[in-house]
Amino acid sequence: MRLSRRGFIAGFIACRVCAGLARAEEAAHWSYEGKDGIADWGRIDPTYKACSIGAQQSPIDLKQPMPAQVGGLHIDWKPEAYKILNNGHTIEAVVNNPDSVKLGGEVYQLKQFHFHHPSEHAVKGERHAMEIHFVHAHPNGDLAVIGVFIKPGARNAEFAEIMALAPATAGEKKFGTPIDPNRLLPKKRIRFRYEGSLTTPPCSEVVDWNVFEQPIEVAEADIARFKAIFPMNARPIQTTGRRFLLKGI
Ligand SMILES: [Zn+2]
Predict the structure, then answer these.
(1) CB-based contacts of 12: which residues, under 8 Å, 6+ apart?
(2) How far apart are CA 199 and CA 111, in angstroms?
């Protein structure tokens, strides 16, 4: 299901995303604060232009959604002994399983999932403690990202294990035993859906966003572990503009 039409420019940017995923380490340096910070992203590199001139940017405030059938979402993820990477911007679990989701009849492969503190999306102006992004790619370059909010509460064993292994500085570590990513999903599956962008450079507008309304709970101490490494890695709220924001099951 297409929520809006994308022009050839989006297709061009999608190829940049493919290239970007393959060799992210060669991308121009950016950061959240200070030099090369959020306000400068669009000026750092010509391929980052969408960060400043894009009209379908993410994250957004999830408010006043239209109740709707948001399109079938079938998640097919399996446990894996992930490589856990500190890439200088976040902690990322690198996926090698042929995990996938089916969204509106299209199949997307899970590439990685990573974390933001605080959450990037807001719900009626309120941000959660954290947000997980499960990044899936379609062979045509489109992305489908599943967003899961995190709030402090009961301990989540999977989250605790990832944060215990997370490298404090740039580098990677590998799990010896599998982690089940399905345990990082909320029970209630009501979700927001809209068309947006990557929330980091190059801010490409190729993302079909699916954000669950119900947060999962994790131990406050495990949130603190992430916060000690990345105190702030969330982009500010972007204008929704004329986009449709849908909410449903
Ligand atoms: Zn993200």
Answers:
(1) none
(2) 16
Query: Residue 210: its pLDDT value, please?
Result: 98
Strands 66-67 and 100-103: unpaired
Q: 101-125 pLDDT, tens per residue? A: 999 899 999 999 999 999 999 999 9
In our burial notation (b when 16+ CB lie closer than 10 A, e otherwise), range 18-52 reads eebeeeeeebeebebeeebebebbbebbebbbbbe
CATH number at residue 83: 3.10.200.10
114 in a structural domain: yes
pLDDT digits (tens, 9 = 90+) for 19-45: 445 444 468 999 999 999 999 999 999
Q: How far is the CA of 199 from the centre of ligand 1 (A)?
A: 6
For residue 198, being part of any structural domain is answered with yes
When divided into structural domains, the chain yields a total of 1
The pTM score is 0.90
The span from the CA of 237 to the CA of 199, in Å, is 10
| 29 occurs within a structural domain | yes
Question: How far apart are the CA of 210 and the centre of ligand 1, in A?
Answer: 12
Domain span at 194: 8-248
Measure 131 CA to ligand 1 centroid, in angstroms.
Answer: 8
Omega into 118 within 30° of 0, i.e. cis?
yes
Domain-located, residue 3: no
Mean pLDDT confidence for 46-56:
97
